[in-house]
Amino acid sequence: MLSRFGEKFTDLYKRFMPDSFVFAFLLTLLTAIASILFLGATPIEIITSWYKGFWGLLEFGMQLILILVTGYSIALASQIDQGINKLSSFVKTPAQVYLIVTVLGVLLSTISWGLIVVVAVLARQLALKVKGINYPFLIACVYFANNVWVTGLSSSIPLVLNTESNFIIKSGILEQVIPTSFTLGSSLNFSILALYFVFAPLLVLLLIPKKKGGYELNDLIKDKTSIPSKSIIEEAGLSISKEKSFSDRLNHSKVLQFLIYLMGLIFIIYYFTTNGFDINLNIVIFIFIILGLILHQNPKRYSVAMKRASSNVSGIIFQFPFYAGIMGIMIHTGLGSTFAKWIANHASIEFFPYISFLIGGVVNFAIPSGGGEFAVIGPSLLEAAKEITVGLPLDQVTELISKTSLAIAYGESLTNLLQPFYLLIVLPVMGAGTYIEARDVMGYLVIPFIFFFIAESFLILFLN
Asked: Residues 246-300: pLDDT tens digits?
């Protein structure tokens, strides 16, 4: 019965789901209208505030792009490909494929959401070798497994809070960083993480579609020319001239690359020795870069890998300035602080994180990016949290701000199961050469959304 519901929801998504970029435009206009109605802001004040904010997330947007691209480049390494081939030789049935992809996806996504591309590559190769796989459902499994990233080491909101001079500090809402021990290391976060490890594989097994025929990858491939025919090693080798010039030797020098990644390894060891397990966006990206250099062995191979990995970042590049513009309207017109004061007057300390969870989930439909959404609503909600806790000890204020930030992240991540922004990571890999679209996949995720919404609501409300 559950599988039939998933198929019906998929049909509905095919009929009604629009492009997510449209929502960014709509939210911009709604924010502008709200500034006029509630604050009496003039059109020129709104437009100048929008422009001021338009460039406010350039650094943050580049950080997210680098996490995606450097993570993808790791997945493209020949060593990873060999490991995938070995694993695929042991998998025989569709159910085994769904289960392995989900479990591996949850494991890798706790390290970084960018590593889901490794799972996408594995899933595609398994789909080519194992008969009877419903390929759109397999894509849904990969996407679903990636949802756990918000509890892991690349969770953007906790990492931003622990990054020096982040935009929350620059806005004057926080005076100093919040260590990840208050967020990623909290009992709430570990409980959400355990929820995914235990129940995500079980849900996938219960939701396996019953429909047969026409859904296998071999049936869906339309354009095999769009798939790279050469490996990264082969493509890099094409640049070597017959006489093997001095520049060729530099481009393919393993010694040169070794010296660079040796410097990186020394710094990584030094960083964690002096700072402890202090994770932020910058050190995660740096680790990915150094690991990519190690796996690809020479500069030319790494350049080819990065070029291929950069093919699916357009959504972040062209949408982030609009998220920043919305943030600019909310901050510079005063709409954000007004919103925060209204929330503070209507919420108690006990229920405020749950209200933030709901707000994070709803706003995610308009701003389908954890970092972009936090930039828009984060300052307002954290300012409200400060107002609610006026007069309380600093540690209690920090705990509420931390739980509120996590709740925003959980809400944003959860409703990703109902809208397709992060499929921008998976579809370029799994949908290459096919006509598969997001609407073919999303209906399978409605039931997982319902289950995890109930479970996460309970944990946020009752777990201290």
From this structure: 888 888 888 999 999 999 999 999 999 998 777 777 888 899 899 999 999 898 8
Other CB atoms within a 10 A radius of the CB of residue 310 amount to 15
Burial class of residue 103 (count of CB atoms within 10 Å of its CB; 0-12, 13-18, 19+)? middle
Q: Which residues are registered as beta bridge partners of 434?
A: 221
Radius of gyration, CA atoms only, the chain: 23
Which tokens belong to 405? Answer: 């930030």
| Direct distance between the N- and C-terminal alpha carbons of the chain, in angstroms, rounded to an integer | 36
Helix (H, G, I), strand (E, B) or coil at 434: strand
- Cα–Cα dist 323/332, whole Å: 14
236, part of any domain: no
What DSSP designation does 148 have? G
- pTM for the whole structure: 0.78
Q: Judge whether 32 and 50 are in contact, CB under 8 Å.
A: yes
The residue range of the domain holding 198 is: 2-216+311-462
In a domain, 57, yes or no: yes
Mean pLDDT lowest among 97-111, 249-263, 272-286, 449-463? 272-286
Matching residue, tokens 């609009």: 322
- What is the distance between the alpha carbons of residues 341 and 336, in angstroms, rounded to a whole number? 9
Please report whether residue 243 resides in a domain.
no
| Angle between helix 254-275 and helix 281-296 axes, rounded to 10 deg | 150
- C-beta of residue 195 within 8 angstroms of C-beta of residue 456: yes
Report DSSP letters for 69-87, one per residue.
HHHHHHHTSHHHHHHHHHH
Query: In this structure, is residue 110 part of a structural domain?
Result: yes
Task: Please count the structural domains in the chain.
Answer: 1
Q: Which residues lie across from 221 on neighbouring strands?
A: 434
What does 14-51 look like in DSSP terms, one character per residue?
HHH---HHHHHHHHHHHHHHHHHHHH---HHHHHHHHH
Predicted local distance difference test score (pLDDT) of residue 410? 96
Burial group, residue 47, by CB count within 10 angstroms (0-12, 13-18, 19+):
middle
d(CA 217, CA 236): 29
DSSP state of 245: -
Yes or no: say if 428 and 120 are a contact pair by the CB < 8 Å rule.
Answer: no
Q: At what angle do helices 299-309 and 254-275 cross, to 10 degrees?
A: 70
The tokens describing 309, both together, are 């990995």
Look up residue 197 and give its two tokens.
């490890």
Confirm if 414 and 452 have CB atoms less than 8 A apart. yes
Q: Give the CA distances from residue 250 to residues 195, 224, 244, 255, 307, in Å, rounded to whole numbers and listed in that order.
A: 49, 34, 10, 9, 19
